[in-house]
Design goal:
Layout lengths: L1 H20 L3 E2 L23 E3 L4 E7 L3 E8 L2 H10 L1 E6 L9 E3 L8 E2 L16 H14 L2 E5 L6 E4 L7 E6 L5 E8 L16 E8 L4 E2 L54 E8 L5
Length: 285
């Protein structure tokens, strides 16, 4: 009996190691021009480098000697609703694995639980039928209400900080003229790794995780829906709870039609979706 249990344990560990090693590693992209973190893509090469079908995110990761940068876009209505209602997290593992000890939560979750049957997105991707002024006002209110992020695992800093902080950690999110959600982030290496990259870092591999939280649904019987790995509404799994929420603007509502889930089934809407990207740092010469 003990031998069988030990054999099973060894097999599980081996399988985990194989899965961990099988993740593809991408060459780094050196950022040669300044990035202004303003939720605009004019500083980035379009299309962005990566696309993940699970999270519906198009994104790029770059770095210079002092900072690592992230830009994301999504035009998917349900993903936008998940991000604005339940929030998302960015994790960095400097060992190249998938540890969640250094992370940023932005935007923060609203704390709002959606009722069963409530709309989860839009019927039409072009939104021509939506009152544009009304939608613009709702989105502007959301951006105005979300002025903080939550950080964990960084040097000499933790908790809630402004989106443009003295530490140099900067984040911004907004919508462009095509109703695409744009997200930018700048993280100085000095806040979690070292002051500045050197030639020895050319072989260094980071793993960056992007988590889009699932939305909690209140069922018709008043039972809480399954929000998947909702990370405690903030930075769960890290021993850190979020007791603060962002402005509760109903970004997906405003009298808009639903039906994006079809027949009231919420599918992946209640589940957290994530993508990890292993990147070898690019060191300026």
């Amino acid at each position: 009996m003990k031998i069988n249990l030990l054999l099973k344990l060894v097999l599980v560990i081996c399988a985990f190691m194989i899965c961990s090693c099988s993740q593809e590693t991408f060459s780094g992209a050196l950022q040669t021009t300044p990035i202004k973190v303003d939720a605009r893509v004019n500083d980035w090469e379009i299309p962005l480098r990566f696309y993940d079908d699970k999270t519906k995110l198009n994104y790029s990761i770059t770095n210079d000697a002092n900072n690592i940068y992230l830009c994301m876009r999504t035009a998917d209505p349900q993903t936008q609703t998940k991000i604005t209602q339940a929030g998302m997290q960015i994790w960095i593992d400097t060992t190249g694995r998938k540890n969640r000890s250094i992370g940023i939560s932005f935007p923060l979750p609203t704390g709002k639980k959606m009722k069963y049957g409530e709309q989860t997105g839009y019927d039409s991707p072009d939104l021509d039928w939506v009152d544009k002024k009304k939608m613009s006002k709702i989105r502007n209110n959301f951006v105005a209400a979300n002025k903080e992020m939550q950080i964990i695992g960084f040097k000499n800093s933790g908790g809630f900080i402004p989106l443009h902080s003295d530490s140099g950690i900067n984040a911004s999110m907004n919508w462009d003229s095509t109703n695409t959600l744009v997200y930018e982030m700048q993280i100085p290496f000095s806040t979690f790794y070292k002051k500045k990259l050197t030639s020895s870092d050319s072989i260094k591999i980071f793993n960056m995780g992007i988590f889009v939280n699932g939305v909690e649904i209140i069922s018709p019987t008043s039972r809480k829906g399954n929000a998947g790995d909702n990370m405690m509404g903030g930075m769960g799994g890290s021993g850190m709870s979020n007791n603060r929420v962002a402005g509760n603007n109903n970004i997906n509502g405003a009298g808009m039609r639903g039906g994006a889930t079809g027949g009231g089934g919420y599918g992946s809407f209640t589940k957290t979706k994530s993508v990890w990207t292993r990147v070898k740092l690019s060191v300026p010469r």
